[in-house]
Structures are given as C-alpha cells and as structure tokens.
Specification:
By secondary structure, this protein is mainly α. The protein has 13 helices and no strands. Residues 294-317 are annotated as: Disordered.
Length: 317
C-alpha cells in the first residue's frame, strides 16, 4: 500500500509543478508590486491562473489519496520531485540557461528527498492510529499560527520578502497534511459521522491562508525557489509532527534510520540554500540591483522614491 501511495504522491508532484509554473506566470504578468487581496478579482478572471488552480486542485486530491494509504512521513517528502520539473519549466519559460551549480543544488534536493522517503518507508507504521488528544493539540497550534502569519503578512506585505511567504506556506501546509491524514484515517475507522468539524474548518482556513502566501511568493520570486522552499519546509514540519506528536514511528524505526533521515533532510536543505544563491534568475536580480546602485550613486542624492523602492524590493528577493 505504501508504494501505491508513493506513486500517487509522484503524480501529485507533477500536477503541483505544472500548476505552480502556470499560476506563477499569471501572477508575475499581472503585477510587479506587492500582491493585495484586491488583485484576486482580476486573477480569477485570468484563464492561465484558473488552469493553474485546477492543476493544483488535482495535485491536492492525489496527495490526499496518498495520505489515506501511507503516513505523512512517507508522502510529504516526495513533493521535492516537483522542484526539478518546475525548474525546467521556468527556465524554458524565461529562456534561462541552468548553470552547473543550479543542477548541483537540484540534485542535492532530489537525492536528499529520495533517501528520506526510503528511510521513512522502512521506519514508519502506516496502520498507526494516533491519540485523539494529539489532534486537539495540533488544531490549537494551527489556530495560533494562522493568526500570527495573518497579522505578520499585513505588516510585511510591502517589503515583499519571498522567504517569509515560503516559510509561512510550508509550515501551514505541513499542518494541513497531518490533519488531513488524521481526518481520513479517523473517517475510515469510525465513519463520517464522527468527523471533528473544527479540524476540517482549520484545514480549509490554513489551506486558504497558505495559498495566499504562495501567491504572494510568486509575485516576488521565481516559482522554483518557491517550490524548493515548500517541498523542504512542508515535509520537515509534517515529519516532525508525525513522529513526535502523532507517534508514527513503527517498531522498525531505529536510531540509525533517524540519523539517515536527519542527514538526508540536511542535504535537501543545503540544496535549497544553494539554489537560492545560484539560480540564474536570482543572479540576474543581483545584477539588476548592482546596476541600480551604480545608477543611483551617479545621480543626485535626491533620487526619486520609485527607483529607491524598486532597488529595495529587488535586494529583498
């Protein structure tokens, strides 16, 4: 059953990559400034953005199906495959040449994710049913996180810090994956009449808030960096919650497997960091920032505020 779940998760990653690239192209074509809720109306009327939403919805459905057959620890790390696909699609869309360091970073992300999955399959118990108290704890933490990230977004919106949006979305989606897994296993075991509706509500709320964070991240960074962050942060959160709060570690889980998972996760994170430094579009943004600084230094001290704002925004990417 776990390997069927892995196959479904791979298909979900493909849909995630295609949907992400499609929506990112629509968002960046729509605005070059901070994305606001008032922009949603025009995005919804954009066929490309809607197509991306459909693909993301299909990917989500496949991922939920995978979570009914295997643990969060197994399913979530597979999303790193979407990074490779998104990088290739974005490079083609932007006519970018992928340099050797970028390929190396992608290889680290993919290899780390693959080893993580194999170790997770060997060390987790897909039949384990968690204590109901764990679900209450997770929902309470998630409510606090949604409020925190919602308020923080209001204050940070105009600074356009891509990493904030990626981290917020990854953390929220990690909680969503765990709660989806709990809800599905609980429904299978006890029937739909015993669903905890507060959990379902928070799954929807966190998904919406996380989706908004992703849209904002599209507006201030390349989509493959967004995917890189999500496919590392999301599974790390899911695995930590799965092993610590839900107790998904099976009888075959040993300290050795734990060390392998930690090492593989570290390799994937290093890959994301390297990608954020050596991605062709990131390098291009740095060069633009340098040119702007040179232009500003050669002009009068009273450079216009729009140019200064553009420089600050570019540097924060």
């Amino acid at each position: 059953m776990q390997w069927i779940a892995v196959s479904l998760a791979l298909l979900a990653a493909l849909c995630l990559a295609l949907g992400t690239q499609t929506q990112s192209a629509a968002v960046t074509a729509h605005t070059q400034e901070a994305l606001k809720p008032s922009n949603l109306g025009s995005l919804v009327r954009n066929p490309k953005w809607v197509a991306g939403l459909v693909l993301l919805g299909l990917g989500t459905a496949l991922n939920v199906s995978a979570l009914t057959l295997a643990t969060v620890t197994v399913v979530q790390p597979i999303g790193v495959i979407a990074l490779v696909i998104t990088t290739l699609l974005h490079a083609k869309h932007k006519h970018l040449d992928i340099n050797a360091r970028t390929w190396g970073a992608i290889s680290l992300c993919t290899a780390g994710g693959a080893v993580f999955v194999v170790a997770a399959v060997a060390g987790t118990d897909p039949t384990y049913l968690s204590d109901p108290q764990a679900e209450i704890i997770l929902v309470a933490i998630l409510i606090g996180l949604v409020l925190f990230f919602g308020v923080a977004e209001l204050f940070l919106r105009h600074r356009r810090i891509s990493m904030f949006y990626v981290l917020a979305a990854g953390i929220l989606y990690g909680f969503v994956a765990v709660l989806v897994r709990l809800t599905m296993t609980h429904t299978i075991a006890h029937g739909i009449g015993q669903i905890h509706w507060l959990t379902v509500i928070m799954i929807v709320v966190a998904s919406v808030v996380g989706g908004w964070m992703v849209q904002c991240a599209y507006s201030c960074g390349p989509p493959d960096l967004v995917i890189a962050g999500l496919t590392v942060v999301d599974p790390i959160v899911g695995v930590v919650l799965g092993l610590s709060v839900l107790g998904e570690a099976g009888p075959d889980f040993t300290p050795g497997i734990g060390m392998v998972m930690c090492l593989a996760g570290t390799v994937a994170i290093v890959g994301v960091v390297l990608l954020s430094r050596h991605h062709p579009e990131v390098i291009e943004r740095r060069e633009q920032a340098k040119r702007l600084r040179r232009e500003l230094s050669s002009e009068t001290p009273s450079a216009d505020s729009a140019t200064l704002k553009t420089l600050n925004s570019t540097r924060e990417h």
